[in-house]
């Protein structure tokens, strides 16, 4: 009788142990919450899709939310990630200053945050910040732009979201190169918030004010594609050279069509996957494995001469 009782107790203990092991295993994998800007833009869509796929490949569950540049929405998404007991958050921040509070909330809840694509203006909060080398990419693009446009003429600039440090970094990078050519004169600069429709509308207004321009330099592909649409409508695309930045599928198509002179590929698929890998390392070992919090990924110039190598969106080569 005693032997039977001991056997029953042993079975119960083993079952409990197995259950605890299953729970522990589920927790060790857990949920990774991914928060991007706006997936209607193919760049951010790729960012979210790649991060989610990498998380699932590593054995986690993953979901993707979008703040669309709104810090209140971002804060609510962080709250949801905390409530859902996420083991890590991958965040493309909405605002260099305004996202600091959201990151602090996650950190206070002992959830590590890894930033991708854009930075915040405070170090030591996020476990890592993985971004394109925007200064290097802007210099590449501006040098190609001058080569395409020539060393003389009037041009306009389409500027991204002022809340995103990338916008100023790219614009300053353009200026550093173009200012070496005094006969290239910037006659207008408009904020179009990374958006194609705004790029179109701002291009229309700049064309009306400055009908003699011969070039447009843009902070991203979406704004550049909006400008191209406006130039087509005005019958001036053959007179105006346009340069972009991102390496989006539509930009690749526009280069092949002879409408866009070049784009600068941001390797978003590379650093989105790398961010999840570093989160996984952090969860399992306590370290991302990276030498520093801020990590820069070099950009690649795409022109008509090498565009056929880039058949898939936001990848280094195919």
From TrEMBL:
Could you give a GO molecular-function term held by this entry? carbohydrate binding
A GO cellular component annotation in the UniProt record? cell envelope
Q: Tell me any Pfam family this protein matches.
A: Peripla_BP_4
Origin: domain of life: Bacteria
- From the Swiss-Prot or TrEMBL record, state where the protein is found: Cell envelope
Give the matching InterPro entries: Peripla_BP_I, SBP_2_dom
* Keyword list, A-Z: Signal
How far does the signal peptide extend, from start to end residue?
Answer: 1-28
Q: Does the keyword Signal apply?
A: yes
- Give the Gene3D superfamilies listed for this entry: 3.40.50.2300
Domain spans labelled Periplasmic binding protein: 32-284
What is the similarity comment for this entry? Answer: Belongs to the bacterial solute-binding protein 2 family.
Q: What is this protein called?
A: D-ribose ABC transporter substrate-binding protein
| Lineage, opening ranks | Bacteria, Pseudomonadati, Pseudomonadota, Alphaproteobacteria, Hyphomicrobiales
